[in-house]
Amino acid sequence: MDVYTRHARPNLKEVYRFFMTQTQHLLSNEAIIRAGHARDTRRMWERIGACTRALYGPKVRQVTIARKHFPIGDHHIWLPQMLAFDDTGKWLQYAYDFTTPWWREHGADDTFAVRYSAIRSIEETQGLGAAFPDEIRSAIRTYVEQATQVEILHQWGVAGETSQLVWMFDLAAPPSLVYDPIEADGKQLDEDAVSALGMALRVIQRWEGVREFVHTLYGPQAVSATLTNFSEYNDSTYDSCLPVDVYDATGNALIYDFHQPWWQPYAVTEAQSMAYAATIAHERNPYPDEPFMRVSFQRWYPPAESQHRIHRMEISLLEMDSIATTTEWDPVEETFDLRQPPSRPYGEVRGTPTE
To answer: Is the per-residue pLDDT at 342 higher than 50?
Structure first.
């Protein structure tokens, strides 16, 4: 006989909700961004694990991913490089497993091991897949490029660095998700939603950094800013240039506002401020239409110490750094409306720690 009444039976949904509220943490923006990044890393780990085992077989335990350049005709090619290791830490040295389904789907048979016995010496000097016919080589490189998301690049001129990145993955130990599950406004989020939320918060975080940088140096009258990252040739290298164009509500370009508290240690005088304004105006329009406007003046720039501090702010707030490379790149331009932050997808976000 059922001695429990309908109202006395526990509501399992409520019990679960109570348990989750006791173990969940209210997550900060940084924690959410970290959780989103952790899911991106887990997906990469899964892709790379599947790709590595498809090429090298189930014996692979660890893999190191790098990007390396190789000479090819009149230029260089940057290729992903996969170094696979077994349970004992032994490097498999390009020992592809031609018995896996991936290889069978691409025409491998029992003769491949003998036909391509010189893989190691060829791939060490010519790169991933170089020992195989064009169709198989292209399939290997496309598969690895998609799995690692390391783009294959062709470069003319000096190749420069020998490697640009190195990742190491233990295929037996999936990366932690940091928080799992994660709920937003009472709704449990799937992996894609957590990643998207982390990316949205990174956009907000970047906007906050740009606004702080601009208002600190140019004053609160600044309502928009355009950041451009382009390469400028300097001797044998290309320097990264990071101009910041700032505008007020009427669309007028602004210069540093030396009345802001940040500038007080440098005691910039009105005469210096006017000279700086004239310097910037001349740089923006060095050849005015009217000849009589081409007046000479004493150039003035803020002290070097302030420029060093501004550069550090560019790194910390704008997340941009001036670097020298051996290659030219296309300009990257970003515009920010400083009056309104990007929208936040959810309000309260909670998660259960996994660590």
So the answer is: yes
Residue located via tokens 């941009």:
320
Report long-range pairs for 328-332 (Cβ below 8 Å, ≥24 apart).
328/231, 328/233, 328/238, 329/230, 329/231, 329/238, 330/230, 331/228, 331/229, 331/230, 331/231, 332/228, 332/229, 332/230
Alpha-carbon distance 55 to 140, whole Å?
A: 8
Nearest-angstrom CA–CA distance, 22 and 15: 11
169 touches 63 (CB < 8 A): yes
Reduce the DSSP state of residue 256 to 3 states and report it: coil
DSSP letter for each residue of 203-244:
HHHHHHHHHHHHHHHH-TT--EEEEEEEEEEETTEEEEE--E
- Give the pLDDT confidence score for residue 161 in this predicted structure: 52
CA distance 317 to 326: 26
The answer to whether the beta carbons of residues 354 and 31 sit under 8 Å apart is no
Place of tokens 């660095």: 161
Distance from C-alpha of 90 to C-alpha of 61, rounded to nearest angstrom:
10
More confident residue, 7 or 102: 102
Q: How far apart are CA 309 and CA 334, in angstroms?
A: 22
Contact, 10 vs 16, CB < 8 A?
no
Confidence tier at 2 by pLDDT (50, 70, 90): very low
**CB atoms closer than 10 angstroms to residue 160:** 13
Please name the helix (run of DSSP H) or strand (run of DSSP E) that holds residue 292, with its range, or none: none
Q: Let me know: does 223 contact 337? Beta carbons within 8 Å.
A: yes
Q: How far does the chain reach from its first CA to its final CA, in angstroms? A: 45
pLDDT tens per residue across span 344-354 = 999 999 999 98
Distances (CA, A) of 269 to 216, 258, 263: 18, 9, 11
**Cα-Cα-Cα-Cα dihedral of 144, 147, 148, 151, to 10°?**
60
